[in-house]
C-alpha cells in the first residue's frame, strides 16, 4: 500500500476556532432537525450526521473556497462544513421555496453550486463517478480546483466506486476520495462485506496513495485532507482518504439500532470530536472557555433564527411542480 504523506501540524488559531464553530454548528443543526422531525414539522425522512462532524469539517477546512464537494444521503454536515447558509439549509428541509434547492431537494439532496457543493446524491456511491467527471472538467479547463468526494464504507463495494476511482487514477485527476468509515452500511457491519482490514488498502489496486485518519479528531482529518488536496492541486492525481468515524444515531430516524452493541456506542461517544477539540483548545490555552461559550451562543442564535426563517418561508405552489422540468 502506497501511503500518502500526512502533515503533522497544528492549524492556526483562526482555523481551529473556525473548525470548532463549524463542528458545533453541525451538531446543533442535527439535534434540532431530529427534534423537528419527531414533532412532525419536516417532510420525508432524515439521515443524521451526528458524531461524524470532524470528517466534514476537517476535509472542508483543507479545501479552498473555489473547490467543490460531492455528498451522500447524509449530507447535512457536509453542507454546514462547506459554508452553506444555515437559513437556506433549514428551509430546504422544511420544503420551502427559500431553501437552497428551492424546496425541490429536501434532506437527501442539499447543495448549492455557488458554494461549491453539488446537490447531494442519495444513491450509494452515485456521486463517485460524478466527482471524477467534475475533476476531469477542472483539469480540462486548466484550473487548480480540487473536488472532494464524500461516501460511506457501504459505497466501496459498489461498481461505481471502482469505475470512478480507477478513471480518476489513470487520468491523474484532481480528486480526493473521502471514505467515512462508520463501520455500518445501514445495519451491516463492514467486517461482513469486506475482508481487507482497511478501506484504504484498496487504493493500491488503482495505483494511487491512501491515508488513514482518525475520524474523531478534526486535526488529524485536516492534516490527512490537506496533504491529499495539495497533492491533487499539484497535478499528482487522486488520493483515497479513509476516516474511521462513528455515527451516534441510527441509519435514519426510523432505525431502532438493535444491531449495535450499547457498549460499542458508548465507547465511541467517549471519543466525541467536539469535546476533544474543546479540551485541546482550553488545555493548550489557544482559547479560553468563555470565548468558546460565546462561539456556541452565536451558533445557538443562528440555529434559532434558521428555524424561524424556515417556518415563515412560503410553501411551493402546485404550479411549481412543472418548473425545472425538461419538456419538448
Description of the molecule:
- The radius of gyration is 19 Å and the shape is globular.
- Strand 2 (147-152), helix 6 (159-170) and strand 3 form a beta-alpha-beta unit.
- It has one domain (13-311): Thiamin diphosphate (ThDP)-binding fold, Pyr/PP domains (Rossmann fold), CATH 3.40.50.
- It has helices at 13-38, 53-61, 76-81, 86-93, 127-140, 159-170, 218-233, 262-269, 273-283, 289-312, and strands spanning 68-70, 147-152, 175-181, 184-185, 188-189, 210-214, 239-244.
- By secondary structure, the protein is α/β, with parallel strands linked by helices.
- It has a 5-stranded parallel sheet with strand order 1-2-3-7-6, with helices on both faces.
- Helix 1 runs antiparallel to helix 9.
Question: Keywords, please?
Answer:
single chain, 328 residues, alpha/beta, Rossmann fold, 5-stranded parallel β-sheet, two-stranded antiparallel sheet, 7 strands, 41% helix
Amino acid at each position: 500500500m502506497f501511503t500518502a504523506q500526512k502533515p503533522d501540524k497544528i492549524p492556526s488559531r483562526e482555523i481551529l476556532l473556525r473548525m470548532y464553530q463549524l463542528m458545533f454548528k453541525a451538531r446543533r443543526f442535527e439535534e434540532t432537525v431530529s427534534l423537528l422531525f419527531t414533532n412532525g414539522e419536516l417532510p420525508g425522512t432524515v439521515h443524521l450526521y451526528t458524531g461524524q462532524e470532524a470528517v466534514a469539517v476537517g476535509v472542508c477546512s483543507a479545501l479552498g473556497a473555489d473547490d467543490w464537494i460531492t455528498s451522500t444521503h447524509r449530507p447535512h454536515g457536509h453542507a454546514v462544513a462547506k459554508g452553506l447558509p444555515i437559513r437556506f439549509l433549514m428551509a430546504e428541509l422544511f420544503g420551502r421555496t427559500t431553501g437552497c434547492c428551492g424546496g425541490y431537494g429536501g434532506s437527501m439532496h442539499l447543495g448549492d453550486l455557488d458554494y461549491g457543493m453539488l446537490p447531494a446524491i442519495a444513491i450509494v456511491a452515485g456521486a463517485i463517478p460524478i466527482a471524477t467527471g467534475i475533476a476531469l472538467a477542472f483539469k480540462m479547463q486548466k484550473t487548480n480546483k480540487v473536488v472532494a468526494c464524500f461516501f460511506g464504507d457501504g459505497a466501496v463495494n459498489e461498481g461505481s466506486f471502482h469505475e470512478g476511482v480507477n478513471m480518476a487514477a489513470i487520468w491523474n485527476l484532481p480528486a480526493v476520495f473521502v471514505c467515512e468509515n462508520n463501520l455500518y452500511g445501514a445495519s451491516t457491519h463492514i467486517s461482513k462485506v469486506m475482508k481487507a482490514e482497511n478501506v484504504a488498502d484498496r487504493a493500491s489496486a488503482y495505483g494511487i496513495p491512501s491515508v488513514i485518519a482518525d475520524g474523531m479528531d478534526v486535526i488529524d482529518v485536516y492534516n490527512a485532507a490537506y496533504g491529499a488536496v495539495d497533492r491533487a492541486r499539484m497535478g499528482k492525481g487522486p488520493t483515497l482518504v479513509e476516516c474511521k468515524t462513528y455515527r451516534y444515531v441510527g441509519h435514519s430516524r426510523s432505525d431502532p439500532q438493535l444491531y449495535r452493541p450499547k457498549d460499542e456506542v458508548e465507547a465511541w461517544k467517549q471519543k466525541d470530536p467536539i469535546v476533544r477539540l474543546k479540551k485541546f483548545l482550553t488545555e493548550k490555552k489557544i482559547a479560553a472557555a468563555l470565548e468558546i461559550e460565546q462561539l456556541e451562543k452565536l451558533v445557538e442564535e443562528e440555529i434559532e433564527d434558521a428555524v424561524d426563517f424556515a417556518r415563515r418561508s412560503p410553501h411551493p405552489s402546485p404550479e411549481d411542480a412543472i418548473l425545472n422540468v425538461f419538456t419538448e
